[in-house]
Structures are given as C-alpha cells and as structure tokens.
C-alpha cells in the first residue's frame, strides 16, 4: 500500500553500515530523511551519497538524521563507500541500510515493477519528530536529486511546524512567508510581531519569523 503524507512512517529493524538499528528508536526526537537508491556501484547514486555526506553540517543544524537504503547487502555497501569518497571527496558519514530481502523497500513501496522488478526507485521520505511522513518524492533512476531543494523543503516544513506559516512559490531562506489560514486576525500581532501584510483577505504575509 502506498504511503501518504501524514501517515506514520513504518518502523523496522535493519543492519546498516553503522550497526543494527531500530528505525523509530534511531530517529529519536530528530527529523529524518530516508532515501533509496537503485543499486550500489551506480554512477548517479555515487554522486548523491557523496553530496549527502558533504551536507552533513546543514542537515545537523536542522536536527535531521539522514539514512540511505538499497536492496544490496552490507558487504556491497562497505565495498562501495570508498568509491564514493574517491569520486566526491566526501566520506560517507551516515548509515546505509542493507535490504537484500527487500523488507524496507516493501514497507515504503520503493519497488515499482514498471520501472524495475528488483531495484528500488529513487525515493525520498522526510519524517517529522512525531514519526509522521511530511514529504514524499520519487525520481527516475536517471535523474539525480536536487539536495538544495530537499534542504529548502525541510526549512519550509520546520517553519510550518514552529510558527504556523507556509512558504510561497519559489520561496528561499530569508524571503517573506505566508500566515496559515488557521491563524485568526486577532492573533496576528501577538504571533507575528514583525508585522503582517494583507495582500488579499486570504493571503497574509510576514517576514520569516526565525530571522
């Protein structure tokens, strides 16, 4: 069954390149980004895992734990990680789940038979501290993910969680944000001391609250 936004992210136990984990326990009170790759020793994935490692500090300051998965086994992962460092200059500093039995791939509906009967598609799940799925993205095997966009979306999700705001089209860090409809007008002054602009009665903007 497909997972939808707001669903509890399925829990699981698995072996990883950083030891055995119980997924929900491993997440703790952090945000999480679980992303799959079709196979080890593939060109696009090599660049992606290197890019993820390079962004460790960016994910860290957002309290996001990242974890990758493919249907390859642990030995394959361990043989591949030196290639990632050689190609990208970044040592893999996050766990890669070994999923040769496809348990995690099945839980998260990562096998799409019309794309491949045995390899995972390039999926991304962003999971909140409440263990609920906040974002799902699925890319074809040929297209590398835009990690700047993933960081942007995480920033937007965290603003919504903390301040009852949404972000407009093409929003970037530091731009004005939108007050969600759930906030009544009589609470605007107390919640948004930087001020609120009424563009339309249903469209109210305010400077980014955490800047």
Key descriptive features of the protein:
211 residues, alpha+beta, Glutaredoxin, Antioxidant, Horf6, Chain A, domain 2, 2 domains, five-stranded mixed β-sheet
Topology, element by element:
Elements: E1 13-16, E2 19-22, H1 23-27, E3 31-36, H2 43-54, H3 56-61, E4 64-70, H4 74-88, E5 96-98, H5 103-107, E6 122-127, E7 133-139, H6 147-163, E8 165-166, E9 177-179, H7 188-191, E10 197-200, E11 203-206
Parallel strand pairs: 3-4, 4-5
Antiparallel strand pairs: 1-2, 3-6, 6-7, 8-9, 9-11, 10-11
Instruction: Summarize the main sheet.
Output: 5 strands, mixed
Overall 3D form: elongated
Radius of gyration: 19 Å
The chain-level mean pLDDT equals 92
Into how many domains do the coordinates divide?
2
Count of helical segments? Answer: 7
Q: Provide the structure class.
A: alpha+beta
Q: Level of helix content?
A: 25-40%
Low-confidence stretches: 113-117
| Beta-strand fraction estimate | 15-25%
Intertermini distance: 40 Å
Gross CATH architecture of the largest domain: 3-Layer(aba) Sandwich
Task: State the CATH topology of the largest domain.
Answer: Glutaredoxin
Write down how many β-strands occur, each being a DSSP E stretch of 2 or more residues.
11
| Element pattern in H and E | EEHEHHEHEHEEHEEHEE
- Determine the CATH superfamily of the largest domain: Glutaredoxin
Q: What's the CATH first level of the largest domain?
A: Alpha Beta
Order the strands across the largest sheet as they lie in space: 5-4-3-6-7
Protein name: Peroxiredoxin
Keywords: Antioxidant, Oxidoreductase, Peroxidase, Redox-active center
InterPro entries: AhpC/TSA, Peroxiredoxin_AhpC-typ, Peroxiredoxin_C, PRX_1cys, Thioredoxin-like_sf, Thioredoxin_domain
Organism: Spirosoma terrae
């Amino acid at each position: 069954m497909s997972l939808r936004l707001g669903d509890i992210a399925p829990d699981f136990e698995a072996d990883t390149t950083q030891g055995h984990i119980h997924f929900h326990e491993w997440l703790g009170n952090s945000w999480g980004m679980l992303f799959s790759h079709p196979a080890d020793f593939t060109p696009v994935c090599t660049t992606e895992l290197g890019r993820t490692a390079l962004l460790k500090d960016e994910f860290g300051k957002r309290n996001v734990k990242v974890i990758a998965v493919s249907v390859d086994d642990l030995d394959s992962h361990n043989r591949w990680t030196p290639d990632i460092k050689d190609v990208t200059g970044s040592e893999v500093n996050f766990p890669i789940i070994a999923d040769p039995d496809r348990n995690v791939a099945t839980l998260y509906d990562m096998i799409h038979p019309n794309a491949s009967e045995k390899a995972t598609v390039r999926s991304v799940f962003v999971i909140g501290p409440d263990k609920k799925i906040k974002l799902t993205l699925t890319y074809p095997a040929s297209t590398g993910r835009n990690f700047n966009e993933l960081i942007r979306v995480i920033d937007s999700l965290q603003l919504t969680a903390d301040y009852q705001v949404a972000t407009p089209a093409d929003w970037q860090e530091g731009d004005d944000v939108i007050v969600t409809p759930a906030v009544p007008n009589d609470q605007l002054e107390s919640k948004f001391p930087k001020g609120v602009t009424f563009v339309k009665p249903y469209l109210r903007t305010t400077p980014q609250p955490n800047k």
